Amino acid sequence: MSAKRMLPIARAAGYEGSARNFRRLVAEAKLLWRNEHHRGRRPAVWSPGEYLVIDWAQAAPGLLLFCAVLAFSRWRFVAFATDQRASTTLALIAEAFNAIAGVPARVLADRMACLKGGVVANVVIPTAEYTRLASHYGFAPDFCHASDPESKGIVENLCGYAQRDLAVPMLTEAKIAGVPVDLQSANAAARAWCVEVNAAIHSEI
Questions:
Q1: Using one digit for the tens of pLDDT, what is the confidence trace for 16-73?
Q2: For residue 139, is pLDDT > 80?
Q3: Among candidate residues 55, 105, 45, 106, the one with its CA nearest the CA of residue 76
Q4: FRET partner for 147 with CA separation of 20 to 30 A, picked from 8, 125, 128, 175?
Q5: Nearest residue to 100 (alpha-carbon basis) of 53, 142, 146
Q6: 83 close to 56: Cβ distance less than 8 angstroms
Q7: Where in the sequence is the domain holding 113, given as residue range(s)?
C-alpha cells in the first residue's frame, strides 16, 4: 500500500505532520519490514554433472567475458568475445563442453535475449537454434526466474572474479606497454588463467 493511500487513514488516526514526512516514515517502515521479512533462500545443493551455469560480463568497451562454471566442482571456463550474438554464445557453450570433455545434464542461463525465443506463462521458450544445440549435445536448457539474479550467483561470482583477476591486470599491462589487446591474445590469456584457477581445489569440495 502506498503512502498516498495510507495518508488519509493516518490523518483520521491523528497524524498531523506533512505528506512529505509521512512518505519518508512509510519508506523507512517498509525498508525495516523487508529486512526483517526477507523471503529467504535455501542454499543450492548441486549434484556432479548436473548444471553448467553461464553468463556474460563486461571486460572493457567492446570486449566481453563469457563465463561458465560447473556448479558442483566449481570448474571454470572463461573466454573473451566482441559481441553477445546467439551464434557467439552457442559457439562458446560448445567450446566450454569441449574444454570440459563432457556435457552436463542442464545449462542454466538468465533470460538472455540471444537464447530466449519467448515466454509463455512465465516459462522461457528457448530459440530454435538453442534447441538444436541442446538436442545435438543432449542437455536440457534451463532459465532463471525473472528478476532473480541470486539463483545464478555462482556464475555472478565467477564474472566478478574474472573481471578483477584476469581482465583488469591484462588490460592494465597492455595499456602500460602501449600494445592493443586483440581477441586472440585475450583468449590465450583466458585459457592460461583457467588452467591456473582450475588447478586449485575449491574449499567447499
A1: 999 999 999 999 998 888 777 766 666 677 889 999 999 999 998 889 999 999 999 9
A2: yes
A3: 55
A4: 128
A5: 53
A6: no
A7: 51-199
Give one word for 151, left, alpha or beta, with left for phi > 0 and alpha for psi -120 to 50: alpha
- Count of structural domains within the chain: 2
Give burial (CB, 10 Å; 0-12/13-18/19+) of 124. Answer: buried
Contact between residue 114 and residue 89 where contact means Cβ atoms under 8 Å apart? yes
- Say what the pLDDT of residue 200 is: 80
- DSSP type of residue 204: T
CA angle 43, 49, 52 (to 5 degrees): 70
What CATH number is attached to the domain comprising 193? 3.30.420.10
Contact 166, 193 (CB under 8 A): yes
The reply to whether 60 falls in a domain is yes
Buried-exposed string 26-49: b where 16+ CB fall within 10 A, e elsewhere: beeeeeeeeeeeeeeeeeeebeeb
Residue 109 lies in a domain: yes
Cell, residue 199: 588447478
- The answer to whether residue 205 sits within a structural domain is no
Query: How far apart are alpha carbons 156 and 4 in whole angstroms?
Result: 38
